[in-house]
Amino acid sequence: MALKIRLARAGSKKRPYYHVVVADARSPRDGRFIESLGSWNPLLPKDGERVKVDAERVKHWLSHGAQPTDRVLRFLDEAGLAKREARSNPNKALPGKKAQERAALLKKAQEDAAAAAATAAPAEAEAATAE
User: Fold this and answer.
1) What are the angstrom distances between the C-alpha of 40 and each of 9, 11, 128?
2) pLDDT digits over 23-60, tens only?
3) Which residues contact 42 (CB under 8 A, 6 or more apart)?
4) Which is nearest to 21 in space by CA: 30, 12, 13?
């Protein structure tokens, strides 16, 4: 059985509250779970007690092969229970495909306008010196 340490959503609409649970990976997000390990209240301020986790039980389940999800792994890393490797996605900040196409068209139009202005400027200078 593949075990996951993950979040199960509770709370009402627009007022999220999550339970940190151990569950079979095949069970639904808010469905059946094996054990509740803590909670996370994202509405509390960041410097407050947002995350509460039973460290002893988390260590137990990690030793039994439970895999934490990315969000839970962040919490466990802050608590010093597990190590989360830093990720690097340099393409995340790049604009989308259509935005890149628009930027390329705009740049080409500016270059064409600059080239046209550069060819027009010497012709005006020659006309001014000829007079």
Assistant:
1) 10, 11, 76
2) 999 998 888 899 999 999 999 998 888 999 999 999 99
3) 16, 17, 18, 50
4) 30
Q: How far apart are CA 130 and CA 22, in angstroms?
A: 87
Q: Give pLDDT tens digits for 60-86.
A: 999 999 999 999 999 999 888 888 888
Contact predicate 54/48, CB 8 Å: no
SS3 3: strand
For residue 129 the two structure tokens come to 């010196």
Q: How many CA atoms lie within 13 A of 81 on its CB side?
A: 21
Q: Identify the H or E element spanning 68.
A: strand 67-68
The contacts of residue 36 (CB under 8 Å, 6+ apart) are 19, 20, 21
Do residues 62 and 79 lie in contact, with contact meaning Cβ atoms separated by under 8 Å?
Answer: no
User: Which among 59, 57, 84 has a CA at the least distance from the CA of 69?
Assistant: 84
